[in-house]
Amino acid sequence: MTAFSPGTRPESKGQAHARAKIALGLAAAMVAPSLPATAAGTMTVPTQLSLDDCTIVSTNDFETLRACSGYKGVPVMFRTERQQVAVSYGLTSTTEKAASELMPVNFLPGSEINWRISNRDGDWKAFAAILRFTADAAPNAANAATKPAQVLLVTRIAPGATCAIAYVDALANPDAMALAEAAADQHGFDFTCGKDQPERVGKFAAW
């Protein structure tokens, strides 16, 4: 496995004001699938995603922030800057490292977030999220995919420690989701944002 991290950008001035709107705008929780009363351990729960249904909390000539709601109302923040997208999670999503971890140009999020959840602390809580990003070929764009690509972005979710932990090439690996889940389970509780580097798991040819 090879360490890799896409380019990052510093937090913009508008994000400070957007932070309060994120917290308020995502108070309504989505209805989570019912779980067996006797279940224990770790599992994946999918929720649907449509950026058209998200709330635009700030926008300017350089970037747009969108607030969405995920598993049990977990806030999901999308930051779009010059055809690059970053996704972050939680009430502090705009200040997390994930908010500055931009995917390469033209990679767009899919329609489903797969939440890795655990009841190790008693209640079922999300500790990681897996989101598919898809890109069409764009050979003339700087920092862009040069051929069609699909990448599963695995993000740790924890207050003050939300960041990318792994990238999985969904076209190069038939078992891409299993690899992403394994990466989430292995690093989702102890990955150190800013110190540990996200990994490219399995075969990787997306960029």
Protein architecture, described:
- With 207 residues, the chain is mainly beta.
- It has one domain.
- It contains 2 helices and 11 strands.
- The strands form 2 sheets. It has a 7-stranded mixed β-sheet with strand order 1-11-10-9-8-7-2, covered by helices on one side. A 4-stranded antiparallel β-sheet has the order 3-4-5-6, covered by helices on one side.
- The protein starts with a strand and ends in a 6-residue tail after the last strand.
- The model is unreliable at 19-39 (pLDDT under 50).
List the defining traits of the structure above:
12% helix; 2 helices; globular; mainly beta; seven-stranded mixed beta sheet; four-stranded antiparallel beta sheet; 207 residues
Helical percentage: 10-25%
Find the structural class using helix and strand composition: mainly beta
Mean pLDDT across all residues, rounded? Answer: 85
Number of strands: 11
From the N-terminal CA to the C-terminal CA, the straight-line distance is 15 Å
When the domains are counted, the total is: 1
**Which regions are unreliable across 5 or more consecutive residues at pLDDT < 50?**
19-39
**Measured on Cα atoms, how large is the radius of gyration?**
16 Å
Quaternary organization = single chain
> How would you spell out the order of helices and strands?
EHEEEEEEEEEHE
Question: In what order do the strands lie side by side in the largest sheet?
Answer: 1-11-10-9-8-7-2
The major beta sheet can be summarized as:
7 strands, mixed
Percentage beta strand: 35-45%
Helical stretch tally: 2
**Global outline:** globular
